Predict the 3D structure of the following.
Amino acid sequence: MANGIPLDGGRHAGTPTVGIVGLGLIGGSLARRLVARGIGVVAWNHRPHPYAEAERDGIRCAATLGELVDAGPDLIVLCNPLKAMPGVLVGLRPLLASRPRITLTDVGSVKGMVRQQVEAAGLGDRYVGAHPMAGNEHSGWQAADPALYDGALWALTVTPGTDYARFLAVARFVTEGVGNRIIALDDTTHDQAAALISHMPHVVATALVNTLVADPDRNIAAALAAGSWRDMTRVALTDPERTRAMVEEDSRNVAALLRAMAARLTGVADALDAYDDRALTAFFALGQPFREYKARERAAALAGAERQPEERTLAIPAEGWQETLLASARHGERLVCLAGDHTAVVTAAGMD
Amino acid sequence: MANGIPLDGGRHAGTPTVGIVGLGLIGGSLARRLVARGIGVVAWNHRPHPYAEAERDGIRCAATLGELVDAGPDLIVLCNPLKAMPGVLVGLRPLLASRPRITLTDVGSVKGMVRQQVEAAGLGDRYVGAHPMAGNEHSGWQAADPALYDGALWALTVTPGTDYARFLAVARFVTEGVGNRIIALDDTTHDQAAALISHMPHVVATALVNTLVADPDRNIAAALAAGSWRDMTRVALTDPERTRAMVEEDSRNVAALLRAMAARLTGVADALDAYDDRALTAFFALGQPFREYKARERAAALAGAERQPEERTLAIPAEGWQETLLASARHGERLVCLAGDHTAVVTAAGMD
């Protein structure tokens, strides 16, 4: 496991093997989870306000990025806000020049833009993109919670040029270190899918709230609001600046999906006004595969340990490993763990 | 309390004072809650399959609508599906002719259409509309749960011609019988607000699911889906036929709101494509009053009993009582209870 994260290997348990840049909700939760799982963590935050608490939790805190690098982690996870990314990368570049062993990853919700920035900083050859599907409507160290990652899936993103050893290092960090599962994608596939299930819906939730606020009878509408409204607008209660940043970082995909949504909603309005039975029937039937997928998920969750999803072994070739992993993800599989450097255990969990 | 529901008055505890037509999720939950609160209930369902269980719960079950009316309730609550409403009303009309004392209400999610049907059946003079803001993604007697009404707000709808004694009967049924709060509206105001916070968002959730299902990388998108997607599409997992019926019953309001949503989403897409900073700033700022309203609600919930919302006494005039109650609702107040026939206790809970 030369490139992996030793769980109980030759190092002292407290020796940092993972460096975390940014102790907000995502980075703070990750740091606390890793420490709780016995993995040494060194962290740097742009302001030292969480350091006293973080140190009490067993997280070694660095006064500077240089001190973080000097602590000698195998992997640095960039958990800073995306707007801070160019500055952090400029700071890291000279520090990492003499340390080729350190692999770089991040947790940003868009992957194409981050890779461009990493490559612009000359760090592309040691980078693997990552996006843990974890979060809530809070933010900051105060909200950090190791359980945020319970059952979270990570998307790792790679290119035809990605070093397989770097991919293995990040994959083992996620499966063994964090205890989560993986799908491996290219940046474009990730960013389009993330726009569909997260960035675009955030705009939709915000537009719903705006519709209510702009209504002259908004007090009455707010009074009538029950579970469906609460759930559909929850993400619009998050910091709107954070939502705006997330949307702008994936703006082309989000804009295209918003236009598609607008067309769907206009289509329903037309069908309602014309009482177009066929169009309404088609609209309400189209989502059936997703309803059945969620019903199977619920049934499996109720069955619990008695009904483990089917697992299979996936051979990962030395050449074309990116395509093999992408095809597995497209079939709805998730990577559970690496049984060897070229053998993964994957589980079927998709819609099809 | 001549027109009210006696809680511990002259009747035997088991004597039905409330008749429930339809023992699905909403009617079944209501019937079980009333019985649990010591109120006699007689119920009729179009199929007798829940009767054995309902009788065990203390609900008297009627073989026919006639038997339900003969049990002598003060109030009949129509909890049948809206598509069954015309048939139920035709059946009730001759049965109610000799019983002018019985007040009629319902729990339908649209109020204008139901009133038209009630008036067409010649029962308009004894009718008060009602819509409890309660429900979940399940349906049917098996899902019935008295707790479904915990903290639920009811919208009662009235017209200039509504008999005040009938309104009082239904208002006391809700506040004393069910233990919930009220706002009193006209049908149009209700149906527009309900379309905004429930019917239109159901279509939006369905359109989100359709977008995912239609995507060639739907397995990957489904894998990445986390909390925001789950919450925003939960209502799209309900029976799509029920959603379609709800939407069609309020189709004019829903269509107008869908077009407005489509325009908002297109506006954001335009702003993203043009990087229109001012438009994006305005879009993400507009919902701020709703965010602050929810933050106040959360703070009040956390403060618990120590911080009761402000209550005041509302005098309800004999003439123009409809406007007095509507103005109170527009100010964000909710009716907690009736202190007398023309005095209500209301609590401030709105956005403004």
Chain B is about 50% helix and 15% strand. Chain B touches chain A through 100 residues (CB under 8 Å). The two ends of chain B are 34 Å apart (CA to CA). Chain B has three domains: 16-185, 191-286, 297-348.
